[in-house]
Amino acid sequence: MSLSANRVFSGPVVVRSSASISRLRVLCGSLTALLTLSLSPVWAETPVNVSGVEEDWELVVGEPSVEDTSPQIITFISPTNRIDAEAAVLELNHSTQPDYQDGGVQFQRWFGDFERVYRAPHTQNRLATAGERIKYTMTMKIEDGLLQFGVRNGTSQTWGAFGGTSEQWNSSVVSQYANLDGYSPAISATYSRVGYAANRVQKFSLKEVRYYRNNELIHKDTGERIVQETPVETDETP
Question: ∠ at Cα 24 (193, 204), nearest 5°?
Answer without folding.
Answer: 5
